[in-house]
Amino acid sequence: MEPLSFQEYICSLDPATLPRILRICSGVYFQGSVYEISGNECCLSTGDLLKVMAVALEKVICEDTETGQTTELPPTFKGLFKPASAPGPYSTPRGPFLEGSKQRGLTLHQAVGRSSGQPRPMLCPTIGPCALLLHPVYEVHATMHLRRDMVKIPSTLEVDVEDVTEEAQHVQFARPLLLSEVLGMEEALPTRAEILEGPAGPAIFENTWVPRLQRGQWLQLHGRSHAWRVLASAPSSGRHFLLSSAYQGRFRRRPRQFTGVQELAAGLRPRQQLRVVVTQDCEGRGDDVPPLGVGDRLEVRGLQGNGPGTWLLRHRHGEEEEEEGEELLLPLDLGGGFVEEACASKKYKLVELLEQQPLPCEVRVVAPDPELERDALGPLPALRLEARLDQPFLVGSFCEEPEEGFELPPQWLGLSPLPCTESDSSEHDYETVDDNMKKTIRKMQAIFPF
């Protein structure tokens, strides 16, 4: 077809034939001009394709044929129209009719119709006695190549277009995906993908591969990682870490500290002993509650009574395990300071630690992970394990270094990768790479500091 203005084409478009593919021919917006559509910047160049998916009437501009004054009508306008007196028959969406016939009036949508050419004069008693020219403005919903969201374009956009639907049937309008979307497409993995948009702002994670996640970089996405992670913090520095379940360092528990008996109650766990040493003198309460002194050793037994309740404690006087002690009842609102007696020699793997110790808890790394070139946790005097996270990660690698794998956290890295087609990946053989990934999974970074 011959090129038409965008307005002419949309006004003559039959919605029943959608979707239609248009090519930008010429106009104000050409050769990569950037403009705003629906609040987002968009770029149209000569030769670009649009796939029109839907057309909605946005408003109608009414022009008084005598004064030239204009007014806008919303699509919900309820007034009825009829053609102004003029010789000859006219064609409307209800078929041909003769001037002066006593048919029912036309709605606004029927009056604007979808015929090409100049608008015809119409009368609307609701507006006034003068003839009106109706100029519809449509909102066109279209998809574009490499655009995530559907764009909404006004039909008055000053560009010329041509309909190339028949010759462009084979054209695929690629839609970029977020990493979180790729994560839900396990049936499509493994695949290669090009990064169209890297992480915005400063990098969240301190890792050697994070700065390389830039536009134009190609990734090999192998599949989902089934490792879980632990969010940790370093109280001395304010830094935070994500520890993978594959982390092979060894931990030693740091004793917990409690302020008051209420915290002791919260720190007691079923089937676990809690032994503490008093670190702050505490005044007694008459004959029922004797005073506690620094160095007193207590074993927390359990809660006794209803309502506010009290804790049943065995007061141990000496250092020997066999030494007898008296039993004390301490009210929950009693203050004081206590530090946990923890076994100082036992070393835990991360899995063992989580099985035996509820989070949060404080630990220290006493043996770094031998698989890591540099274990950032080793020098830290203390590490607080905050919570376990079971959110899935993507196993990936750079295409030029396929065996150096890493794990991408979609929740924190909002990349927009574009999976390649089969023809794009034909020059690479990744079957061997994926077999090797199963063997080298332990070489992946086990710590994400941020």
In short:
The protein has six helices and 30 strands. It is mainly beta and 450 residues long.
Write structural notes for this entry:
It is a single chain. By secondary structure, the protein is mainly beta. The protein folds into four domains: 4-163, no CATH class; 179-226 and 392-449, no CATH class; 229-253 and 344-389, no CATH class; 257-340, SH3 type barrels (Roll), CATH 2.30.30. It has helices at 6-11, 108-112, 179-183, 261-267, 350-356, 431-440; strands at 4-5, 20-27, 33-37, 40-44, 49-64, 70-73, 82-83, 90-92, 95-97, 122-124, 128-144, 151-154, 159-163, 191-197, 218-225, 229-234, 239-244, 250-253, 257-259, 274-280, 297-304, 310-316, 325-331, 337-340, 361-367, 383-389, 393-398, 401-408, 416-419, 447-449. The strands form six sheets. Strands 1, 2, 5, 6, 7, 10, 11, 12 and 13 form a nine-stranded antiparallel sheet that branches. A six-stranded antiparallel sheet has the order 18-25-26-16-17-30, with no helix packed on it. Strands 19-24-20-21-22-23 form a six-stranded antiparallel sheet, with helices on one face.
Shape: elongated
What is the number of independent domains? 4
Distance between the ends = 57 Å
Beta strand count: 30
The portion of residues assigned to helices is under 10%
Q: So how many helices? A: 6
Structural class by helix and strand composition: mainly beta
Q: What Rg is obtained from the alpha carbons, in whole angstroms?
A: 37 Å
